[in-house]
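Researcher: We're teaching a course module on how sequence relates to structure. For the next exercise, students receive a sequence and then see the predicted structure as tokens, so they can try to spot secondary structure elements on their own. Here is the exercise chain.
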Amino acid sequence: MTRTVPAPRATAESTGGFAGVGRDEASLRRFLYGLPGVDQVGLERRAATLATRSIKKGSKLRAIDLAISMIDLTTLEGSDTPGKVASLCAQARRPDAEYPDVPPVAAVCLYPDLVRGAVERLAGSGVQVAAVATAFPSGRSSRAVKLADTALAVDSGAGEIDMVIDRGAFLTGRYGKIHDEIVAVKQACGNAHLKVILETGELAGYDDVRRASWLALLAGGDVIKTSTGKIAPAATLPVVQVMLQAVRDWHRLTGEYRGVKAAGGIRSTKDAIRHLVAVNEVAGPAWLTADLFRFGASSLLADLLRQRRTQVEGHYAGTEYIGAS
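Model: And here is the predicted structure for the students to work with:
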């Protein structure tokens, strides 16, 4: 993908001396607990206000196309087959067979063993291939296994890695363990971008979401992601706001752009547009690009395409007529 904003990749050198924060357990704890607390009432009130914002009819088609271009089209089931991946890749390249002006999605997201076939099918399309790794979705395994999982995906050609943090370690305050693991996985990624899944539904509250977000940023994550999509709640608007605040503040302090991926529970065009409004209002218009904001919501695509046809054709369109070429 061509970047539309400056987006320096995180490196050990660029983040290692951030604000003088040490990387030992005690220093990380001091920094994370020194972050401002989240005003829950104010946060949820603002989220409710943003959810009521509407966009002009003339802008809705552009918003729908933007949302389509931000989707990570995902299949993460034990029953996944090469044939299913081939179909997914075809849809990723051309989401609506009858409307070639519909943009391709941002990426397909798969298990590591299916990456190579997707890379072959998406060559030259601009659609990225992402792979989940590090003992997805639990994150419960040895570091050696997690790094081997990452290496399998990268060696197969994945351009993006979605890793999960060890929530048990986070909830028991072992921040150094999580930091060092993210650093190690990032090194194993090579040139692939790293998305760090926080699994926010398993965290204790908004303050923990803020701490987990900053911990991932300090360790060099390119993108912070809400959820594996395997548990609820996942990508709620207040949680996404907290994460957007983190990447906005990181940019103000360092000049580096980091991204957010809202994954899980976003199924309608209305929900997608609410999130785009939040991106614009909380982080800023620079984040309204697939390089810096993603939807991890495959079921969302069908509704976006249906609503897009409604906009173009002037009448309601059913999903049974929408498909990839």
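Model: If you want an answer key for the exercise: The longest strand covers residues 128-133. The domain at 23-313 is CATH 3.20.20.70 (TIM Barrel).
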